[in-house]
């Protein structure tokens, strides 16, 4: 498995997988909410689909589908995961 450079979750496209490295959020309430939803460092996220207008985007995290707006997913950083077939 080869990994790419650090990028924002919001830059990922449907069908991609992403491993969270850090949450860079100054708002403690939003940070706690994202952590409670399963967006924790080391966790793998699958990008499922974007809404017709592009915001929000559905993600699969901890076997749950969660929709986040771009303003929320802009603060989640990590690596896209590639499995050699891509």
From TrEMBL:
<keyword id="KW-0408">Iron</keyword>
<dbReference type="GO" id="GO:0046914">
    <property type="term" value="F:transition metal ion binding"/>
</dbReference>
<dbReference type="InterPro" id="IPR052713">
    <property type="entry name" value="FeoA"/>
</dbReference>
<protein>
    <submittedName>
        <fullName>Ferrous iron transport protein A</fullName>
    </submittedName>
</protein>
<dbReference type="InterPro" id="IPR007167">
    <property type="entry name" value="Fe-transptr_FeoA-like"/>
</dbReference>
<dbReference type="Pfam" id="PF04023">
    <property type="entry name" value="FeoA"/>
</dbReference>
<dbReference type="InterPro" id="IPR008988">
    <property type="entry name" value="Transcriptional_repressor_C"/>
</dbReference>
<feature type="domain" description="Ferrous iron transporter FeoA-like">
    <location>
        <begin position="7"/>
        <end position="80"/>
    </location>
</feature>
<dbReference type="InterPro" id="IPR038157">
    <property type="entry name" value="FeoA_core_dom"/>
</dbReference>
């Amino acid at each position: 498995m080869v990994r790419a450079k650090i990028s924002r979750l919001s830059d990922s496209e449907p069908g991609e997988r992403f491993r969270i490295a850090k949450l860079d959020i100054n708002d403690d309430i939003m940070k706690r909410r994202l952590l409670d939803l399963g967006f924790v460092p080391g966790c793998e996220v699958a990008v499922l689909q974007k809404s017709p207008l592009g915001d929000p985007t559905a993600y699969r995290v901890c076997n749950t589908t969660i929709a986040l707006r771009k303003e929320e997913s802009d603060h989640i950083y990590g690596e896209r995961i590639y499995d050699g077939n891509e």
